[in-house]
Design brief:
60s Ribosomal Protein L30, Chain: A; Alpha/beta knot; 7-stranded parallel sheet; 11 strands; alpha/beta
């Protein structure tokens, strides 16, 4: 029976995609894999094989134990408990600035606090070919087990870069030749009329509030997403998908 949640310097990752990605991409040492008694599942068998290759003990527990560990969260029958937080290959803002090129595409999230939205944005960013997601360190969601679960492995492939001062980070991107495009419901320029080619960072605001004033002021241009129905705004993860895939469409090589 699992009676406590490991905190401190440890890390807990749950969900099939997130656990598998962590075992593949991280230098995992020390901890254990908890598998629920959900019957034969080839995806869980693959995780069991990867854990064995990395020398991690595997403990079979009941689904009820896993539910208790994560308060009913959808763990899909597997939890990876690490003794220490093991980061994926670290990427800093300086790394991004040094590697900016003609096809750079970044996603900036200004104060997104819901970890489910952050995880969904990471998943969309991975699918759209985004090089990194940039977020402020304060008053915004950071990397958590829930974010990794929702991201379905994208948290291991798309760097999440936390910056102390978002406005200063935007200035640094601009100095490196990156065009910063912000989304604003009142902007006159439609997403579909904007040029989204070239080195670019697309900035979206927090749920319900949009971009903060200082962030808007540091954007090179503001664009709006056309809204035809009665709702006034989109969930930030949906808005990210709309904007990133329009950028992806415009960047496709023409045959």
């Amino acid at each position: 029976m699992i009676s406590e949640y490991r905190g401190g310097e440890g890390m807990v990752i749950f969900g099939i995609h997130a656990v598998k990605a962590a075992l593949v991409t991280r230098n995992v040492r020390g901890g254990e894999v908890l598998l629920g008694d959900g019957g034969a599942n080839p995806r869980l068998a693959e995780i069991e094989r990867l854990a064995g290759e990395r020398g991690l003990p595997i403990r079979k527990v009941t689904r009820r134990d896993l539910d208790r560990l994560h308060g009913g969260a959808r763990h899909q029958g597997v939890v990876l408990v690490l003794d220490k937080a093991v980061p994926a290959a670290g990427v800093s803002l300086e790394d991004i600035l040094e590697s900016c090129g003609e096809h750079t595409l970044l996603l900036v999230l200004d104060g997104v606090e819901d970890p489910h939205n952050l995880g969904a944005c990471l998943r969309t960013a991975d699918a759209a070919g985004v090089e990194a997601v940039i977020v402020p360190r304060d008053r915004a969601a950071g990397m958590t087990a829930t974010v990794r679960k929702v991201a379905s492995g994208a948290a291991e492939s798309v760097p999440l870069v936390q910056v102390t001062n978002l406005a200063r980070a935007l200035r640094q991107l601009q100095d490196a030749g990156v065009w910063v495009i912000g989304t604003d419901a009142d902007a006159d320029l439609s997403l579909y009329d904007a040029d989204l080619t070239g080195p670019m960072a697309i900035a979206l605001g927090a749920e319900g509030r949009g971009l903060r004033r200082l962030t808007r002021e540091h954007c090179d241009r503001l664009i709006s997403i056309p809204m035809i129905g009665s709702v006034e705004s989109l969930n930030v993860s949906v808005a990210a998908g709309v904007c990133l895939y329009e950028a992806h469409r415009q960047r496709r090589p023409h045959s």
